[in-house]
Design brief:
With 757 residues, the protein is mainly beta. Among the domains are: 100 residues, Thrombin, subunit H; 79 residues, Immunoglobulin-like; 105 residues, Sandwich (Immunoglobulin-like); 137 residues, Galactose-binding domain-like (Jelly Rolls), CATH 2.60.120.260. It is 1% helix and 43% strand. It has 1 helix and 56 strands. Strands 9, 10, 11, 12, 13 and 17 form a 6-stranded mixed sheet that branches. A hairpin with a 6-residue loop joins strand 25 and strand 26. The chain is globular, with a radius of gyration of 27 Å. It holds the Pfam family CBM_6. Keywords: Signal. InterPro entries: 6-blade_b-propeller_TolB-like (IPR011042), CBM6 (IPR005084), Cellulose-bd_IV (IPR006584), Galactose-bd-like_sf (IPR008979), Glc/Sorbosone_DH (IPR012938), Ig-like_fold (IPR013783), PKD/Chitinase_dom (IPR022409), PKD_dom (IPR000601). GO terms for molecular function: carbohydrate binding. It comes from Streptomyces sedi.
Length: 757
């Protein structure tokens, strides 16, 4: 989730499931400790910061959601003992943030120290965004407090939806520094608040020149502006260099107001006054008249932007400002040309930008795309270390969070001889003892092309076990080991890569018997599940240790719902009105952690399933292309345009040549009787074949014959029966146009699907 870098080169990072990890300077990874956390919705272990005097006192600070029934988040201080062990008995709870856990979303949790020893804490609005059509959630009805961000972000008496600033004391308490938004003793206001009016300030970074903050704040999901509701969904990147109110839930971007919407009557009132916002919600316990809203420095919307260099962005990330030190002896520090710059990343599409800040540090002077060759996979946290290098957590692919392609990376700037690249592969990473593992350095290289030398430490004892490019090692005793490869070029520069090996334990195996991966449902349906877990060492499985979490999938991420326990049962798969027209679907993550085996540590297995909504907007296809037999004239695959369909839908797919296809994966047609297209077919009509597994050779599971509608934007509804015997497995489903002309607005999957009757 987040990371901190010690002066000696150790990297501490946290996992949302509660683990605090340490990467040593030589690449060894260990678990310092595990904090018991609640991981429903978006809660968990979310933030970490090292004390400014960490080298001397070993203190680190965590933002986490404690396990149990108490609905709070905590900021706690722990001590790291010698041996990189988190002393769990040393916990000092500095600050408690009240939350509600019945409804998703937005927990925040990012932590940062400034140069004066003040700790900044970012908190989310803890408000359900899924019933406000993608606009502002301000439902003032009596039983809808969790759907009203006026209760949190715009409430001076709540710590949610804020940037807090406190000064930790040696005894584990804190004081409030001068200059926060509300003086101590102000009625109906919390003195810890430095800035308010945020939705989900997921990442913050400090400017060491001013001690101001850079705040990446996530926005709602409306696809377009609406005169009756407000602007399209916009994310923000703020320069928070003064206390104040930063707009949410009344204003967004450059102070574009939302409309005061009455959820009880479904009617719209006047636009909010960003210059003099008033919080008159019955859920507000703070002051009524708020400070003038402060607009965002950068904002990126679903249909608009004030930053053309970035365009649209749905998931902003930020570092702090780089502080170039000419006296620092480091062969990896970034050069002076980046002094004062900030790194902006988009989690959704993995783009990274360098933001140049003006000399007075008050505004962005330049936005430049960079690091394109590094090919990051969803950068999740960014921080410049004391060595002048950039450290990055990469989320990787998948929705469950336990992604095999995630990682922690250091981005060095080298002038002259560049570091070699170390790549390590192992044919297995766990199993019963004695465990034989074959290792290989294939893919390791030197940018200058010199010959590499190799040094393997298979068991992590600091002794070189082999100098060959590949080798094998047998772990005779149960336990956890770190195998490390070090490669060195002809000029003496070296790099390493490491992998964890567990001897004496095998990972559990999870089989999801039902529902089928890729099955179809309607949001709000209930699904029955049945899971089989086996583990060679555990023997009989305690089903109460099997955890299932449904979630709302949205583009590349998921909003988790509550947790369910057991090998079988039912769960609701809820959607929302806040993502209408968006690329949404359902996911379920099934997790089991075994009990370990003596000295062999515990292992965790996750299975992630995706469920498809029965109504699929055509423009949200996963892939598109053309049959091999159709030739390559023109642009293969479909295009997207604004639709003229009187039934709405936002966009349709167009430019569909014979042999072009669009597809979704995974799919499973259990319980689906017919497939329908909302399509315009001009004067000729058209034929679409639905094929499973492969667009060229897969079986045809449905054929949809479309009659002419007379115009490219006059739409009708057409269906084809599904051959239930043609496909029985999960896999991709291809819609292949074989003749005629058509545009497609949406696809309907008709039948019970995988849901309960």
């Amino acid at each position: 989730m987040e990371l901190g870098i010690a002066d000696d080169g150790r990297v501490f990072y946290v996992d949302r499931n509660g683990e605090v990890k340490v990467v040593s300077p030589d690449g060894l990874v260990s678990t310092a400790g595990t904090v018991p956390v609640y991981v429903g919705q978006e809660f968990g272990l979310l933030g970490i910061a090292l004390d400014p005097d960490f080298t001397d006192n070993g203190w680190l600070y965590l933002y986490y959601s404690p396990a149990g029934s108490e609905q709070v988040d905590r900021v706690s201080r722990f001590t790291v003992d010698e041996g990189d062990t988190l002393d769990m008995e040393s916990e000092q709870v500095l600050l408690t943030v009240e939350t509600q856990r019945q409804e998703c979303c937005h927990a925040g949790g990012s932590l940062e120290f400034d140069t004066q020893g003040n700790l900044y804490i970012a908190t989310g609005d803890n408000t359900n965004p899924f019933a406000s059509d993608g606009y502002t959630p301000i439902d003032e009805r009596e039983d809808r407090a969790a759907w009203d961000a006026q209760r949190t972000s715009a409430n001076s008496d709540s710590l949610n939806g804020k940037i807090l600033r406190i000064t930790p004391q040696d005894d584990g308490s804190y004081t409030v520094p001068e200059g926060n938004l509300f003086a101590e003793g102000t009625e109906n206001a919390r003195a810890e608040i430095y800035a308010m009016g945020f939705r989900n300030p997921f990442r913050i970074g400090v400017d060491p020149n001013t001690d101001g903050l850079y705040v990446a704040d996530y926005g709602p999901d409306a696809g377009a502006s609406n005169e009756q509701r407000g602007p399209d969904g916009r994310v923000e990147w703020n320069i928070v260099d003064e206390p104040g109110f930063y707009g949410w839930p009344y204003c967004v971007g450059e102070n574009t107001p939302y409309v005061d919407y009455d959820f009880a009557s479904g009617t719209s009132g006047e636009a909010f006054d960003c210059a003099a916002p008033v919080n008159d919600s019955p859920h507000n316990t703070g002051i009524t008249e708020l400070p003038p809203a402060i607009g965002a420095e950068l904002w990126m919307g679903k249909a608009s932007t004030n930053t053309p260099e970035i365009g649209g962005s749905g998931a902003p990330m930020t570092s702090g400002a780089y502080d170039f030190d000419p006296d620092l002896e480091s062969d990896r520090k970034w050069p002076e040309e980046y002094d004062g710059s900030v790194v902006f990343a988009d989690w959704n599409d993995s783009r990274m930008f360098s933001l140049g800040i003006s000399e007075d540090r008050s505004e962005v002077a330049s936005v430049t795309r960079f690091l394109e060759d590094l090919d990051f996979n969803r950068p999740h946290a960014l921080r410049f270390g004391p060595d002048g290098a950039l450290y990055v957590i990469e989320w990787g692919s998948g929705f469950g969070g336990d992604n095999t392609d995630s990682g922690v990376y250091r981005v060095d700037y080298t002038d002259g001889n560049r570091y070699p690249i170390a790549k390590l592969s192992a044919d297995r990473t766990s199993g019963p003892a004695p465990l034989e593992v074959n290792f290989d350095s294939a893919g390791s290289s030197d940018p200058e092309g010199t010959e590499l030398t190799y040094a393997w430490d298979f068991d992590g004892d600091g002794t070189v076990d082999s100098t060959e490019p590949a080798g094998s090692f047998t772990y005779t005793e149960p336990g956890g080991y770190t195998a490390r490869l070090t490669v060195t070029d002809a000029d003496g520069a070296s790099a390493n890569s490491a992998v964890q090996i567990v001897s004496g334990n095998t990972p559990p195996e999870i089989t999801v018997n039902s529902p089928e991966n890729g099955g179809f449902f309607d949001f709000g349906d209930t699904l029955a599940y049945d899971v089989t877990v086996t583990d060679a060492e555990d023997g009989e499985i305690d089903c109460e240790s099997v955890v299932l979490q449904p979630a709302l999938g949205h583009d590349e991420h998921a909003h988790g719902h509550d947790l369910h326990y057991g090998c079988s049962g039912t769960f609701p798969l809820n959607g929302d009105e806040g993502h209408i027209g968006a690329n949404i679907f359902g996911t379920v993550t099934v997790t089991y952690t075994d009990q370990g085996n003596g000295d062999a540590p515990a292992l965790t297995t996750q299975e992630v399933l995706v469920f498809q909504p029965k109504h699929r907007e055509a423009e949200h296809f996963d892939t598109t292309g053309r049959l091999e037999s159709a030739g390559d004239e023109g642009e293969p695959g479909v295009a997207v345009e604004e639709t003229g369909d009187s039934e709405g839908g936002g966009q349709n797919i167009t430019a569909i040549e014979d042999g072009d296809w669009w597809a979704w994966e995974p799919t499973h047609l259990t319980g689906i009787d017919e497939i329908g297209l909302r399509a315009a077919t001009m004067t000729e009509g058209a034929t679409v074949e639905v094929r499973a597994g492969d667009p060229d050779s897969g079986p045809t599971v449905a054929t949809i014959e479309l009659e002419p509608t007379g115009d490219s934007q006059v739409y009708g509804d057409f269906t084809g029966a599904v051959d239930a015997e043609a496909v029985t497995d999960s896999g991709p489903l291809y819609f292949v146009k074989t003749s005629g002309e058509l545009n497609v607005n949406w696809v309907e999957f008709i039948g019970q699907g995988v849901t309960q009757p």
